[in-house]
From TrEMBL:
NCBIfam families in the record: agcS
Protein name: Amidophosphoribosyltransferase
Molecular-function GO term, any one: amino acid:sodium symporter activity
Membrane topology: Multi-pass membrane protein
Transmembrane segments: 37-57, 212-230, 242-261, 273-293, 333-354, 385-412, 424-449, 461-482
Amino acid sequence: MNNIFDLINDFFAFLAPITDAVWDFPTNINWYKTIPILGQFSFPVLLLIGVGIYFTIRTRFIQRYSFAPAIKIMLARQPSKQGVSAIGSFMLGLAMRAGPGNIVGITGAISIGGPGALFWMWVAAFFGMASAFTESVLAQLFKEKKDNEFVGGLPFYGKRLLGNKRFVGLFLSLVFITYALFNIPAQTFNVFSAIGAIAQAATGQHYSHQSTLYYTIAVILVVGCTFIIFGGIRRVVAYSDVLVPIKAVIFVGISIVIILINFPLIPYFFREVVVGAFAPHAIFGGAIGTALAQGVKRGLMSNEAGQGTITMAAAIANNRHPCEQGLVQSFGVFFDTMVICTMTGFIVIMAHVWTGSVDGVAWESVRASKITLYLTSVQALVPTFIAKIVEIIMCACYGLFAFTTLLGMISFAEISANFISKKYSFILVIRILGSLVFVPFGILTILAGLELGNLWYISDLMNIIMVYLNIPILLIGLPFVLKALADYRQNKGASFDSKQYGFTTECWNGKEDGTS
C-alpha cells in the first residue's frame, strides 16, 4: 500500500512544474519579462480577458441583459417534458461553479496577489459573462436528442464548427472526460477536509487520515455518489436543485452576518481592493501583474467562463430560444463571482491576517493552508462565543461545495461521453469510472496524506488545456451566436429557426420548444 501512496505523490509532484510553466508562459522567458507592464501578464490571462472583451463588444454588452431576463427565464414553466428546466440547468451549472475554489481558490488568490486580486476577479467575471453567453448559446444550438433528454456541449458544437468531422468531437469528448475525472480527486480531498475540520471543531480532537472517522467518510461518500450518479442526469439535477440553494443561501447568509458585525471595516475592504489592484503591498510582490494574474486565474477557474466545461449543463436545458440559456449561464458567472466569491473576499480581506506577518517568510507559512487561513479569518471577525459554531457551518458549506462539484464533474463527463456513444452500457462505464474508480482514487490520496496544493496542479493543468481547446472554437462559432442573438432581440424570444439563417440544427427548426 505504501508503494501506491508513493506513486500517487510522485505523480502529482511531477505535474507541478509543468502546470506552472503553462500558466506562467511567457512570463518565464527573460526577454518577455523585460517588456514594461505587458511582461507581467501571462498568455492565458491575456487570452481569457481578451476574448471576453471581444465577445462583449460583438454582443453589444450582453451583460446588460443577463439579470432580469435570466431570472424570468428560470422561473418560467418548462416548455415540454424533454430535457431539464432552465433553472435545473442553472443549478447544475452552479453546482460546478460554486465549488471549493470559491473559498480556498479565492483565499489563495488574495494570499498571493493581495486584496487587489479580488478587483481583477470582478473585471474577469464581467467580461467572462460574455464568454459564458457565447459558449452556452453554441451548446444550445448544436445539442442533440437522447430519448427524453438533451445532450451536447463542447464536443458537439466543436465537431459541427470544425468541418463536421467526427474525430474532432471524439477528441474533445475524451479530453473533457479526462478533465472531469481527474478533477474528482481534488473534490474528494475537499469533502474529507471539510468533515475533518467539522469533527475537530466539534470535539477538539485531531483525527489522522487513517482514523475510523476517515474510513467511515470514505464508505459514505462512495455509496452516496454511486446512488446519485447511477440514477442518471435527472437524479443528479433533482439533488442539485436542493443542495445548491442550501449551500448558497447558508454561505452567503452567514457571510453577510459576519460582514455586518464588522461594518466599520467595509470602507477598509473597498480601499484595499481598489488600491491593491494597482499598487499591491510588498508582501504580495508589489507588482500589478501578480494581483491581476491571480485574480483572473482563480476568478475564471471558479466561474469557468470560456473553458467549455459548463456547456454540458447549458445543452441539457429545454429553452424556447437558444439565447435564453446563454443569458441564464451568463447570470451564473455573475452570481458565482460577484456574490459567492466576493463573500469570501470580504472575510479574508477584512480580517487582514497578513498584518501580523513581519516578512514574506512568515506570511508564506501562514498562507500554506488556504482553508486554515480562511477559517482563521472567520474566527478573527466573529465573537469568541460563536466562533466554533460559525466555523462548523462554514466547513459544512465547504463540504457541500465540494460534494456538488464532485457530482457535477461525473455528470458532465457522462453528458460529454454521449458524443462517443449513447448506449447505456457505455454510459454505465463512465458512471463506474467516476463513482467507483476516481472517487476511491481520491480517497487513496487522503490516506496517503497528499496535500491539497499538489492536487490542484492537475486541476490547473486540465483547466488551461480546456481553455486552449475551447476558445478558438468559440471564435469560429461566434457568427452563429450573433445570428441567434439578433433573432432573439428582434423577435423577443419567439421560436428560433436555424434554417432562416443559413444553417441547420437537430433541435432548432422553428418549433416553439426547440425539441424537434
